[in-house]
Amino acid sequence: MEEKIIVSSTSRWLLLLLICALNGYLAQKNTDPNPNSGWTFSKQESFVAFSPNLTLEQDQEIMFSFRTRSPNGLLFCHLVEHFNQSVHPLLRNYHFCAELSHGFLQVKYSLNQISDVMNLGKALNDDSWHSVDIFLETTSGKLEVTLDDLPSTSIYLRAYTQFADVKAILDWTRLRSVVSFAGLTHAVAVDHHQFIGCLRSLKYRELIDVTWEVSPTIVMQATPGCQDLCQGENPCGEGRCVNLYTSVHCDCSLLDREGDKCQYSNITAVTLHGYEWLTYQLYSEEEKTLRDRNRFSLQFKSDRGSGVLLYAVGSIDAGRSLEQHHSHVIASVHQGTVKASVAFGDDILEQTMGIGVDDSRWHNLTIVHERVKVEFYLDGVRYVHETVNDMYYLGLDPIIYIGGGKKFVQTLGLQVRQNFVGCLKNVYINDHSVLYELRNNHSFSQLHGNTDIRYGCHRVANISLTFPKSKSFLYLSGYSDRTFSVQFDFRTVRETAILLSAKINTVDSFGYQVKGFFEVWINNTLPMIKFVRSMYYDSIANTTLLHVNVSDNQWHTLSFQLKDGQVKISVDNLSLPSFSTGNGSTLVKTIEIGYGYSRIYAEHEGFVGCIRNLVIQKQFLDPINLMERAPTGGYQSGLILDGCKLVNYCLVHQHCQHGGRCLSDWDGVSCDCSSSAYQGKYCQFSRYHQSCDSYFQSGWRRSGVYVIDVDGSGPVEPTYVSCQMGISTEGDYYGQTVVEHNLHNLTKVRGTTLPDIRLRLTYRGMGFVQLQQLTKTSAWCEQYVQYRCLNAPIGLGNLTNFKSIDGGVVQYIGEAGTAFTPGCSKGTCNCDDESLVAQEDSGFNRIKSQLPIGEVTVYQYTDFSTPDSRGTLTIGPLKCWGNTESLSSSSVTFVTEDSFLKLPGWVYGDLKFSFRTHQKQALLLYQSSSNGDWFKVTLEAEDAIKMEMQIKGKPVLEEILDADQPVNDGEWHRVTLELSAHEVRCGLDSQRRIVAIPFHNNITFDGLLYLGGKLYDHGSYHNLPGLAGCVKGLVYNGKLRNLTYDVYDDMPNILSGCRPRCSPDPCQNGARCVEMWNDYRCICTNEWAHSGQSCEININNNAVTVTGDSEAFFDLRVSSNPLEMEERIVFSFRTQMYRALIFYMYDELNNFIQLEVVESRKLRFTRNNFQQIFYKDIEVPGITQPTWKQVVLEPSKIIVDGEVTFLGLSNNKMETGYSTDPFANEEETVKPSRPAEKLPPFLRLYLGGTPANVTTLEKFTGCIRGFKIGDHPIDLQKNSQDIAGIHRGCKKGCNVNLCLNGGTCMERWGEGLYECDCSRSNFAGKQCELEASGIFTGQSVVHYEFVPYGEAAKTNTEQFSFIFKTNCSEKTMVMLMIFSKTKGDYIMISLSNRFVRALWKQGNNLFEEKLKGYFCTGTAHKFIYKRQGEEMWIKIDQSDWRKKFTTRTYLENMNMVLVGGLIPELTINMEQKYGDSNQTVNFTGCISEVTYTPVKRESNIVIQPMKELRDLKNGSITVHGPEVLQCSPVDYHDPSQTTVPTTQFPTTSTHPTLGVTMPPWNIGGPRVYVIGKGNNITSPRPTTTATPTTTTSMTTEPVTTSAYFPTTEQGPTNVTLVLGQIITDTVSYITILIVSSVVTLMCLISVLIAVVMKRLRKGYVTYDVRKKYLEDFEMKEPLNHSMETYSPISPPPKKDIHIATWDEFSMVSATLGPNKKKQNGIAPGKVHTLPADLKNTDYPVQTTFLPEDASLKYPVYNRKKNRPASSISEVLEEMERQQKAKELGVDPEQIEDPKSHGEGELEWDPLVDRTPLTLTQDEDSDGRSQATSSESEDPLKVLDQQEDLLHEYNGDSGYEAESQRNGEDDLDLGESLTPPTPDSSKLYYDITGVTESPKCPPRSFKLIIESEEQFV
Question: How do beta strands 240-243 and 1080-1083 pair?
Fold first, then answer.
């Protein structure tokens, strides 16, 4: 055990000495008389010690022997006891110790900060005695150590060489020291392990050459002698006892027993299934050591030929003196044999043993390692090996794998990587039983890959492959056949998943081979096959479902077979109908099981579950082999083997929020959030921001429609709003949320004919909660209110009242306060003066708590002066911007990088803040904690921040967020961290990322929060500076913290508010302002042209235009100092010249520099090198483009637009010796006149050209600006005043490229105009706007002739293309022909409604190739032709190339192109079938962009006939027939195919404005409530505009109206409610009052009549009805009464008997009349007959039934009762009779009537059928749904019906019993009703007291009613 002890106090030291002395005294009494017999140390803090007497000159020597089984332990240590630092000022610390470390002997000597370490020996923890002699020569510092009989090892201690006088530091005459063995006597800062074992022969040299036996003076928990706990009676029985010194351990490996005492004979065995394995921890990491003795043994049993049995590898580094030592022990079953391997470094001992060990029998494998010898045993057969490596030690890692593992390191000796499948027992590592310890839950033995251990030996079958995640898949390749089959079992709980997919080659309707695919899906728990014939063309997906639930967590079998173009699929032996894929269909090599990768699926659509018994092409695929090594070309991703531990977690955990669909994963649940507006593991995070301002602050800058979620992740759903970005307020910019409502502008609300009204507004997409949340979180809100009046006072607070949505009264318009300007309050409004002049009161309401306005109440003014008096109201949309959480008023400025704020800690909730800075790295925020946990946010780079968190000592979050733009740009950037269970969402502006973290929303920080930086004891955090910038909007612990309150006067480097000096930007000319937060610095974007503190000086403003005229150039004497030629020259130019002289400058000695444009892409710099001329060409891309190029010319280099070119030339000027011909042997392109005599010093500059006799170079045409030599700019504009052809400034004609379609803009210098060069495009016109196209009507042909020159005259690499669109004709149409007038050769392209044909003719050779397909679609298609030698290739659009072999012969003199058809003189010599006008016609349609290139590699020869036509170059163009007008096939689209896009709710976090539009909104109008009559002034009815209305909900107001669309100055119309319809009219209110009174009176009379009739009805039953009960009981429920009875579980019908249910009656096309007066005057209850001459069409429709079957010629007629059928039972009885007649082929009159009740067995017992009565829906007269049955009839009426059933027995058919009577007569049951039963779903009432029919046996039954509401 490792201990780290800290120095204690003096009192503790004295107490420890006292305890040690007492223990020493007691130990002396019990110790062996001979102390050198040794000591046993078996407890923690056990040791023996003594204090040596040392002198300054004395050497130190200590000797001892030890034995132990522990790899680590302190052997001895010499320490200095407490000393006075002032007495020994040079001494800091000292210790001289020896210990075991990883089995090595380690000797350490440490003095102050100097330490030395020696490592000796190996594997010294072998429980053998080892002797140690350590000698230190104090004079020289030589340390010598002897171990056992090995030669001694020595080193010279560095402390003795680095310190001048060690003896002065270690003054033993004044220092007290102690030597302890096995442990430490007192607390010192020395890391050590307690020694467990024995020590003996302790010796110490005290005097020179005198060594004495140590007699310890302090003994602490040490036992004298070396005790062997295994001596005496063996506690292990027959097993071997192992002495551990603290206890004993029994080794049962040689016995067939196990247990702590080898007491059990029942040996533990386990079964491994291939996905499980065992691990045994050999030792802890700190105990890792080399061993020279090891033993491994196990018994195994398997029927598989391969599998890993044992895997132990490792390496160890014991210290500086030893290198890394690699070793391993591996054993496996490989192809029926056992292969074992033991490695000692590079020496690998391997052995192959046994034959056929996969015979399902037990086999015993043992590997014994003892020093250099290794013995392998298999079933008693011994194999011996010896290593030649002197490092015969094994240094294994702590974990040993048994039976397999996961992700093995590739190691020599590992023959297989498959996990073992079979049984294991008697597994021993050295003397430990792995399986016994596993069964007894010892932590050293672990099972992996499964949670359930299967003890015992069992046969392994049906190993399953597990697909744990949605993206897991198995990819198998190598299958390509017309016959293919696959079968497997699968198990899942996913309701929708892709199970199997494969690509398939089929043939389309044109005979071409296309690539399609099929997929097997689980679609809403049902298996589904999907087949798509073509993946590239529009192809209908054929899908078929099988109605079998396969998502039930049970095993199901899927079988798929492709054979002879037929696909058959079955699930659990239930087959789907087979479908055809076409003859010749073949599988395309691969199949994918699970998610797949060749097609894109939604993430949640992958298969999650298990698959087993996979058979492909009748070959079983072993899951273990698939996991280890998939077949050739295949692989798997994410699959595991775990025994299919599939659990439907969705049945246990419903964590999905906001409508997310629960998906059960392997280790829990995930949620499908694709149909919601949320994201995250549980759909807990909103995808959208909370407001437009939140979008704006996150980087969205474009105004438009956005989706916002006002409560974030709260319950309110997102909505659409309009966002106006960039609203300026208080010096900052914000995003503004605009919410519309349904009150139209200038709505008339007050007038002479209007009533008192109340308007309730509806806001678009937002309800009360959303509006309230928006106004609450926004910093500012406003709403415009306007009232216009003409003699219509507003009367705020009296006649007009506004209310906000939360009910607050608003009695003002505009700003609230004492001064309402603009706007008004009560009594101060303009409209209140009752003027006859139109006036207005308006303003913006800005009190957030009273916004938005939700209701307006308007009382009419009763004293209007004129009928035209009116008042109109306009309420603007609600506008909100800013955020209360991120206002600049709560910000602070950190002026320096070492300033920061200490704030209370973050303990819960989300954390958000905004910052702005110009730094590239900074510590933004740090949260500390006393337990070592922390969280920090750092600025990592100019465009990235990093969030890190450590919880409980482990990093749980480390996420870098990259912004879309730099975040050190001085603008505000928002950082957010949102917490939820298991996940956090990190945000930086628009970038948001969800990260899984292992804690449940409970952060554990208890320290301070450091904002802006942190002070550390040893400098800044990881060398990160603090923030220099601003922070605002710090939100944590659930609230906003106003940081200004945390700034005090004693913080000079922290300021309240954000105080940037770069806002507004003081820098000019695009310079970048560097914020210094108390100052600024400008970095000029152009250091050569801009200067000044704010980069305000711009020499580029001095520009001129040089037109290229003969006199248009500068001739300047720039200086009298020729040395200025060596100064830096800066200027910019723009030109379109391919070659021109820019400037030439020379001095009096003919030294010169020259710059010119050459070859249209280069600048050439020329200068003299003494009498030689040197030049350098610099490539400048786009030099002829009309853009500015800046040149910086220095003596050694040239910089062009930032690109540096070094000249490689020294400054070699001619300084003496003038000559008139200085460059006699050189060629000068500029040669000024040179006088005979040398002139005085000068420096002359030609700029833009030279005089005519100086050079032959072209003059410069273009613009020049900012010309500066050294620090002296040349004023070009001033110097150009008297020069013709040079203009001030530079007007840009090509400021933007106005040339379309690839045309080149050409400047007209000095005019600011342009021209377009269209030569390199396929367009013509002034701006290249005319497409090279033409509309052909079948009568026109474009004829173009040209002269092919050069290689074009003879070619076999011709190519051409064109675009066409047409609707075709019945004949083949010629589109294009390229012809040789001299040879008669041609290439012709024609089109039919089945193909495009290419004809190629040369001499007698004629070749034809067709592209099959239908291209007459009215859409554009592009045809491409090319030839390379003998191969001709053609294609259309994106189709594959079609190749045709022709001939290598050259086409010669192809000099004519015909577009649109043929001309007569050519058809004479053509083949009959191609030139016949009966078969071939000219083209009808559009052709464009015809391009013919005769020679492939010669791009300069391009023939474009249609372009020539549009350019009007008629010299080569002839149009035969009518004029060919222009068309545009590329832009063509068929209007009939246009579809209206539908608005979809965006569910992704892409740009919220891209493709987002407002959803449709039936704006209607506000709800209008009439609350009073208004005024009594009658006036002419105003003309109104009819407006659409919508139904409104019922309110508590007296009268309700619908929403409406008022027009300008149109008031709400009066309302009358008539028969459920809302009718609007502008009638007077007196009329309304009269009508209302009449209606009310009629309603009261109707109620009275209904009450009287009810009373009479209960006591009176008509004679006709009584007679009907006695003679002929029927359920007279007419069929046109839509009453319906529904039984939750319908009883099964009897065999061969038709029992019709009420659902079936809906199929009967009949309407029977109700029991009331008929249209023919026959009253109900009367017995009447059907007249013989009455036809179906004559009889009243209410009492007839006309069958749909035309063969039934008669109405349904009750023959027994001599009348038409009036009940459903009679209808069915007659239908049965007629059906029977139809089957027998006889007349229906001959069929006997079905048996009535009196004639046979009753087939339906009304007393047994107790189906609960249920509510049904009926349609009332105005189309609205109302309740019937129990709601329309009271329960007593229902009981009447049941009583009638009991009393009725009239001999009618069994169908009668299924009908219900009309229920018009009641039977008073008195007190027969009993209370309901406890069943909450049905109410039971006992009606056993009802008098039963004498014909029926007495019985009790209950009437069941579905709900209490039916009864009540």
Answer: unpaired
Q: How far is CA 556 from CA 518, 572, 650, 820, 1393, in A?
A: 20, 6, 21, 78, 50
The DSSP string of 1218-1258 is --SSTTTTS--SB-----SSPPPS-EEEEES---TTTB-SP
Residue-wise DSSP of 899-935 = --EEEPPP-SS-EEEEEEE--SSEEEEEE--TTS-EE
1639 SS3 class: helix
Contact 1831, 1745 (CB under 8 A): no
Tokens of 1349: 């020159």
At residue 97, the pLDDT reads 94
Please tell me the distance from the alpha carbon of residue 1260 to that of residue 1107, in angstroms, as a whole number: 8
DSSP bridge partners of 367 = 296, 376
**What pLDDT, on a 0 to 100 scale, did the predictor assign at position 1756?**
61
| Planar angle of CA 619, 624, 628, nearest 5 degrees | 105
| Both structure tokens of 1153 | 């520099």
CB 197 within 8 A of CB 68: yes
Residue 1317: its pLDDT value, please? 82
Q: What are phi and psi of 561, to 5 degrees?
A: -145, 130
Nearest to 1511 by CA among 1332, 1348, 1737: 1332
Copy the structure tokens of residue 1655: 């009373």
Q: Collapsing DSSP states into helix, strand and coil, what is residue 229?
A: coil
User: Around Cβ 692, how many Cβ atoms within 10 Å?
Assistant: 30
Rg (CA), the chain: 51
What would the DSSP string read from start to end of 74-99? EEEEEEE----TTTSTT---EEEEEE
> What is the structure's pLDDT at 1699?
38
* pLDDT score recorded for residue 1555: 55
DSSP-derived pairing of the beta strands 1372-1379 and 1480-1482: parallel
The pair phi, psi for residue 1028, each rounded to 5°, is -110, 100
Sequence-ordered list of residues with C-beta below 8 angstroms from that of 445, at least 6 positions apart, any chain: 278, 279, 280, 281, 434, 435, 437, 438
- Residue 1006 tokens, joined: 């208890």
Could you give the CA distance from residue 1505 to residue 1460 in angstroms, rounded to a whole number?
11
pLDDT at 544: 80
Q: State the Cα–Cα distance between residues 720 and 738, nearest whole angstrom.
A: 10
Q: How far apart are CA 1609 and CA 772, in angstroms?
A: 31
In sequence order, what E strands does 1662-1810 have?
Answer: 1711-1712, 1743-1744, 1757-1758, 1763-1764
In terms of C-beta density within 10 A (0-12 exposed, 13-18 middle, 19 or more buried), how is residue 1125 classed?
A: buried
Cis peptide before 1794 (omega within 30 of 0): no
Q: CA-to-CA distance for 1314 and 1304, rounded, in angstroms?
A: 10
Instruction: Confirm if 950 and 934 have CB atoms less than 8 A apart.
Output: yes
Alpha-carbon distances, residue 1363 vs 1506, 1536, 1537 (angstroms): 11, 22, 21
Q: What is the CA 1352 to chain-centroid distance, rounded? A: 56
CB 1336 within 8 A of CB 1374: no
Q: What does the pLDDT read at residue 1680?
A: 38
At residue 1041, φ and ψ (nearest 5 deg) are: -105, 120
**Torsion angle in degrees (nearest 10) through CA of 1241, 1247, 1249, 1250:** -20
Listed as ranges, residues in the chain with pLDDT below 50 are 1-36, 318-322, 818-821, 1017-1020, 1531-1553, 1576-1628, 1659-1754, 1794-1912
Q: How many residues does the chain have?
A: 1912
pLDDT digits (tens, 9 = 90+) for 1255-1284: 989 999 999 999 999 989 999 999 998 899
In angstroms, the CA 613 to CA 1082 distance is 74
**H or E, element range at 1507:** helix 1505-1510
**Structure confidence at residue 163 (pLDDT):** 84
